[in-house]
């Protein structure tokens, strides 16, 4: 039996799959980054598992996470989404997702890709944290505070330092797998196969 992170509820098969296949794996693809930002924003004030269960519904509701299409959503779309019981029917969060799509595109235009913008906060390479016990986990960091502040200045909403740190964990900017977790070493070893250098140019 594989040893996994202490935070993981191993009674939930879909949670295990997310942990094993995605959490902490470096993401350099803008569509996936927009998906993660959208889901993390929706998660604010709720449990991540609540949003994970609704992930497919969010994918359908927000145009397969096509940022250009989400940015074009208007009042009729908002009204429709507020009747969609399969997602979190919070008007402020729905409006924030559309707003964030527009801000996301502005960053793409300014930096060439959102990935190039995002990864600059960790100097274009993942941070591997020493996680020996639950006490070693942090809910935010100096970098997530800076990242969140910059996102806010660029118009993003529902993305404070704690939510942004969760995003950084999810998309591999920080590797916060427990030291004993089998995925820690697997993901760290995979870094040599990822061309992080392309983010600098």
From TrEMBL:
Zn(2+) binds at residues 5, 19, 177, 181. The keyword Protease does not apply. Keywords: Metal-binding, Zinc. It comes from Pseudoalteromonas byunsanensis. One of its GO terms (molecular function) is DNA-3-methyladenine glycosylase activity. The keyword Transit peptide does not apply. GO terms for biological process: base-excision repair. InterPro entries: Adenine_glyco, DNA-3mA_glycosylase, DNA_glycosylase. This is DNA-3-methyladenine glycosylase. It holds the Pfam family Adenine_glyco.
């Amino acid at each position: 039996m594989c040893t996994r992170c202490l935070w993981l509820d191993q009674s939930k098969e879909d949670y295990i799959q997310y942990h094993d296949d995605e959490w902490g794996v470096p993401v350099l693809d803008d569509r996936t980054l927009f998906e993660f930002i959208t889901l993390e924003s929706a998660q604010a004030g709720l449990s991540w598992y609540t949003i994970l269960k609704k992930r497919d519904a969010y994918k359908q509701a927000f145009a397969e996470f096509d940022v250009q299409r989400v940015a074009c959503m208007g009042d009729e779309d908002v009204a429709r989404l507020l009747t969609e019981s399969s997602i979190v029917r919070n008007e402020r969060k729905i409006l924030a997702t559309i707003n964030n799509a527009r801000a996301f595109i502005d960053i793409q235009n300014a930096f060439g890709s959102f990935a190039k913008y995002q990864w600059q906060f960790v100097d274009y390479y993942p941070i591997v944290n020493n996680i020996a016990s639950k006490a070693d986990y942090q809910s935010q960091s100096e970098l997530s505070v800076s990242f969140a502040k910059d996102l806010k200045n660029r118009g993003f909403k529902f993305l404070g330092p704690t939510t942004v740190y969760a995003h950084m964990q999810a998309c591999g900017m920080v590797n916060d797998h427990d030291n004993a977790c089998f995925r820690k070493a697997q993901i760290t070893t995979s870094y040599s196969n990822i061309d992080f250098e392309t983010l600098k140019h």
